[in-house]
Amino acid sequence: MSKSLKVSLWFLITLGFVFGFSGLVFPNQSPLVETPAPDVYQFQRLHIFLFNLVGGGMVLLYFTESKRKLSVRTVLFLIGSVLFSMAAFLNQYLLATLFALGLALIVEVVRVRRFSLFPSDFFNKNVAVARKFHQAALLCLSLGLLIASAVMINNQYLHIFNQSALILDDFFLGFSFPISLLTFSVMFSIAREDNSKRIRMLREVSFWVINLGVILFFIFIIFQLFTLQVVAAVLLFSDVLLVFFLFRHGSRKGEQENFLVSGILFLVFTSITGIIITLAETYLPVKDPHAWTLLLQIHAYLSLYGWNLSGLTVVMRFDDFPLQLHDLEIILMHWLVVSLLAPFGSLYPVFAVVALPAFAILMGMILFSRGCQRVAA
């Protein structure tokens, strides 16, 4: 990965992190405001998009194409995703829809060139699970863009379906899922092969439970089926533990593994907080607003800048490991920023003052640390 690309990623991801604290400057952007007015410019969208869609989507395409430099398609995706983010931020939904459709087309072109038009690999037990997760990440990204487009058209123009059930920002959060799937792909690709029938079966189970479980979970949210949300959340938590077992079963000691183990632990805590939130929404109608908002922020940061960033760290520097840094120190710093400073900083300025430079330094360490020196054969 070139230095200019690393600088671009550092800027985009750090800027997205900064927008997470917009509520400290603009009261109508505060996490305490559950439903901002529809005409309000929502900086939280930029907080989500710059990391998940712009940075994460670009890395996914770059990793898929396996080229030393960004291809024309990936550059177009980068430009288009920034334009989409700005259009959605400015509530210009027709423009956002057009950009989203163009982005989905780019992703599908990349996916079909690398895999196939119909994802037949999903149903082939002889195809490695890592390859299945990789294609699923691309397919999820393109489908997420198409579904978001459909929701924007429905909510703003057609009004065919109940708008209160199709909350646009809930679908925008789905842009984080492709990074998760890519991370799972990398985890299974670097783990040692185990061709025993039991392990192969468990890998297949993990793939289908994660993908179908998340789809069902979103459906249950849309139709407000609270009991089924709890069931789906518990099922996904169990599958996270299964993936953790499978990865540790085949992992080798090294920096990549350390970052991924840290990432899966982020995901475990994300699953736990997600179950707590789902139960509280169902059975605890009266909640302290500050405590509730803090719990939501912890959950969001553990997922977005914890689990997903751990995966992106390995993907962005995939060819550079071992890195010349102290992985334990950077992992501890990562946990401090994401689980404490950032969520508290979204509500209390004193924490934000520390969280912002700490995250910028963290991203610098991740992206610009010197990698291994490869010797030509």
Task: Please tell me about this protein's structure.
The chain has 377 residues and is mostly helical. The protein has a domain at 41-191. The protein contains 13 helices and no strands. The protein has helices spanning 3-19, 43-65, 72-89, 93-114, 129-158, 168-172, 177-190, 197-222, 226-250, 255-283, 289-316, 327-345, 349-368. The two termini are 21 Å apart. Mean pLDDT is 88; it is low at 373-377.
Rg result: 20 Å
What distance separates the N and C termini? 21 Å
How many strand segments? 0
Strand content: under 5%
Order of helices and strands: HHHHHHHHHHHHH
Per DSSP, the total helix count is: 13
Helix content: over 70%
Mean pLDDT: 88
Identify low-pLDDT runs.
Answer: 373-377
Largest sheet: none
Structural class: mainly alpha
Principal-axes geometry comes out as: globular
